[in-house]
Amino acid sequence: xxxxxxxxxxxxxxxxxxxxxxxxxxxxxxxxxxxxxxxxxxxxxxxxxxxxxxxxxxxxxxxxxxxxxxxxxxxxxxxxxxxxxxxxxxxxxxxxxxxxxxxxxxxxxxxxxxxxxxxxxxxxxxxxxxxxxxxxxxxxxx
Length: 142
Ligand code: SF4
Fold this sequence. Notes:
Layout: E1 2-3, E2 6-7, H1 30-34, H2 53-56, E3 58-67, E4 70-77, H3 84-97, E5 101-109, E6 112-122, H4 125-136
Parallel strand pairs: 4-5
Antiparallel strand pairs: 1-2, 3-4, 5-6
Iron/sulfur cluster (SF4) binds at residues 3, 14, 16-17, 22, 28, 33.
């Protein structure tokens, strides 16, 4: 994402981040900071307490897009990869509720984070094929 003209990604934090919070919270930009809805904090979130991003090391965005009328959720790691416990929980949730899931891992080069992410799809085979096709064509996933 970009915050006030600064590219921000793992390894390159927002210039307003103190590591504990935001040093200019009252003036944070509308997009993405105010508009962003972390899946853990939204009203009636199905995520359990332990899935809070600082603990589970994953950020979940519910209803990021749709596929054949089904809601598609997106999960991105806090760090390089989503830890297995959290990813298994998300896959199980996706299966039980019929919600295809897109999840990513952050690409590192020469030991350093880049701005690139590798996406994987979890859900029906046709959904996985659809996402593979989009990725092959470098097309946006949502
Ligand atoms: S809330 Fe503050 S620290 Fe967080 S991304 Fe927005 S400006 Fe940066």
